[in-house]
Write a structure and sequence with these properties.
It is built from four helices and ten strands. It is of the alpha+beta class. The chain binds copper (II) ion.
Amino acid sequence: MEQKQSGTGGSLVAAGLALSLVVLTFSTIYIFFKRTWWFPEPISAFAEAVDRQFDRTLVITGLVFFLAQLALGYVIFRYRDRGGRARYSHGNTVLEILWTSATAVMFIGLGIAAERAWASLHWMGAAPGAMQVEITGKQFAWNFRYPGADGQFGRTDPSLVNDAAGNPVGLDTNDAAAQDDVVTATMAVPVNQEVEVILRAVDVTHSFFVRELRFKQDAVPGMVIRLHFKAEKTGSYEVACAELCGLGHHRMRTVLQVLPEDEFQAWLREQAAE
Ligand SMILES: [Cu+2]
């Protein structure tokens, strides 16, 4: 029987593997620390809460990643091929219980930590007096509807949807409340004001996404989904569709302008005039 060769060959391979793991680990940690590719600046309290949760998760999982990769590098080198016989192990029940419970505690803990931010968006309604904007997703554009001076949205009817006639959301112009509704192709909101979003979709599932608000919600045909946000920084932000919704998905984007109150009112008047 041929005796397996041990010696420098095995050591070199093991050392090379271990070293590449160490280099990979440190460069990954460096990229995250340096924030080389990072999120745009948050513009709402909710967005900041999401970022805090992200940081918490990243620190915990980053630490686990760091220790696990270094341990793997160590084990690769320490137990490299020395020509001996491998030993069979049944595992270790105590260790199994330990790391399963540690993982459970970590996931449940992170879930509890995130619960308040999640609840503030999904379970609690908009603050009283919030401005309402209805957002309708359709292949391949967003439409925004403001209720006008009466504060009431007029009736809509899917059978009235007609892009060519300039009625993308199917507004029923016979309804008195519909007379002053303003339908726009870009979105604007006043800064520091609670906005209630009423999300709808005409054809397939779309997803309303504004990165700076950390706000992403599917718009589902047949459903009316209410969420809310308060943008605290003026500026112009991209609205993207975050759900692959067809061939023109890539061009389903528009802009959210966060404006001072007077500029917002002027914008709304301008849109109504058109
Ligand atoms: Cu879409």
